[in-house]
Amino acid sequence: MKENNQMTKVKKTMVKMKIRNELARQCMGEIIGTFVLLLFGCAAGAQIKTSNETKGQFLSANLAFSIGVMSAMYLSIGVSGAHLNPAVSLSFCILGDLPWYKLLPYSLSQILGAYLASGLVYFVYYDAIMEYSGGVLTVTGPNETASIFATYPTEFVSIQSSFLDQVVGTAMLLLCILPLNDKRNWPAPSALLPPIVAAVVLGISVSMSANCGAAINPARDLGPRLFTFTAGWGVEVFTSYNYFFWVPLVAPMVGGVVGTLLYLVFIQWHLPDEPEEVTGNPEDMEKNDPKYKEAMEGPIFKVAAL
Prior knowledge:
The chain is mainly alpha-helical. About 65% of the residues lie in helices and about 0% in strands.
């Protein structure tokens, strides 16, 4: 009896704690989802950087981010849709799948989740970061550690090339994931969406990271960049590389729109309409079809008009 009473109390407590506001629940889903995504990715970056690539290399970080995408989607897709990316949220607003008033709360939640994940990675790898950097947190130089968290361009890459890089990468992301949930196209089974999206992210990461890190996600870059700004790296995280910081913030949003429009113009608008629900006896309906009557009453073979 005591155990039953305790279980009842626990259930009552859970009911009381349940958040009724839909948007609040969705924001919580985006926070924890983006947190998991960045925890995987930034932790891999810290391990690679502080070990001088003896405990991981380029592919390790890309795999970690991809597994983070998959895990985060499984975690939060039932609550918020697992956008995890303001560019994806903007795309869904354009498509009418997300109300426009939710775009800002979703985006802020994603940035917050990325910020919190960066903080946890910093504390987990604090000793290693300090040992590697000599206790001096810098954005440039041989012992820089800012790239553990945010993305930065290769020194010879211009702002223009970086912008184009991020537009193309994010456009590819949206162009490849939008068909997965389109019932008029060839949708993927819902349970397989996370690994398929993760594979798309991995493909983009291993092919388009050389210029400026393949952020393709404003929250993935801005959240960690804000953390490094507040944790001791200073204003240089915004001013370095000719004020590069705005590129992974703006270009993915542009790329998301481009990818969405490409999918609409080249694919979605030309797909056949969804079949209407059929009622009645299929055989009777088939016999009443004019094409059926023509086939039965007309010649067996027809020669096409030239």
